[in-house]
Fold each of these.
Amino acid sequence: MSQPEEQVTTENDQSKNNENYNQAITSVLQSEQLEMIEDIQSGNEEEYDQEVLSVDQRNRNITDARKSAYDGLQKQAKRMKVISDNAHPKPDIGSTVRIPVPDVDRGRGDARSILAVVLESTEDGFYRLGTKEGVIAKYYSRSEFSVCPANILTIDEVSKENELSLRSVARA
């Protein structure tokens, strides 16, 4: 048998299998529907009603479980937010902060961290930071830097014309 004939035979077999499968599913569904109709006609409406009630009760239980899971996740998120806010104090505009430089962004001779000053704060809790070399292009969250106890840099010392990446500031 040639290759095209084999493909046609295989496709015919698959279509026959699909037809048989669909017929089997249809017959099972029809038999279940017939049983329900026979139960109702023979006076077994109570059994039918009990089945409907148990399905409704299961749906309510599922809805209640989903709602309680959602509420639990919301509580957990609020707790995590409070813990994070307590661990990372909110910096003031003009405060000096230390930004650790990730190992992948620095060479052997580059600084492990850089000093920057907080230039602005967004409504979402992100901060724009600047150094003597220029403004860092990325906005930072409070967990990405630590506030220095002394103000080493001032906003006036920041070169606002240049927008740089953290990597280029670490190399400077």
Amino acid sequence: MMYAFVRFLEDNVCYALPVSCVQDFSPKSRLDFDNQKVYTVYRSPAHDPEDGDESPGEWRERPPLHKAQILALAEDKTDLENSVMQKKIKIPKLSLNHLEETGEITDYGDEDMELRHCKRQDGKKQNEGTHKSIEAVVARLEKQNGMSLSSNSSPEATFMETSDRMNNMDDAVVPRVLYEELLRSYQQQQEEMRHIQQELERTRRQLVQQAKKLKEYGTLVSEMKELRDLNRRLQDVLLLRLGSGKYLIM
């Protein structure tokens, strides 16, 4: 008996079911189906329309048919399992606009596994770009901070040296009040400069710590996504082997 890998449109859940569960569907080969068509399918193989042992009462109790899309056909469940593991089954994105009027499904040609891979690669590139930007800012701050701290002379010594040179000039006459006022202003500016340098140093250390944390976080996120993809694939295979054939499409 052939099996069909179908996706129910109402909840986007996949099942591996006998083809006899599909209403008015008798394929002659594994390619004898239309993945753009909406079929009506029973969710459980226990309600097989070709089962001749059912009583009339059981026929009346059968659950309703559901709209579904056929993604693949296979001779048995083993073939379906191999197709899932080898990513041979193409799972298009759904576009349910005007579905009731047209009865067709728009296939964008994107596989679910490929989309997850692309998103994972985009996330890695974004984290690397942010990390490089932070490193560039830190390097620039270190360069500026190193240039500002290169001089070891005190503000008072620098100012006195300049004053001595001025005193040696015959035409340099500076009142003492003006001299003291200029000295206080110079000292105040130097104090503000030291405060700014301390703030820059503290900001630099914080940026370095954040850059390290961001790099570790990016690595953890990438590993988590890879583990999640592997876990989802293992769950799909396990459900097939248990006979339910249930797949969750994210």
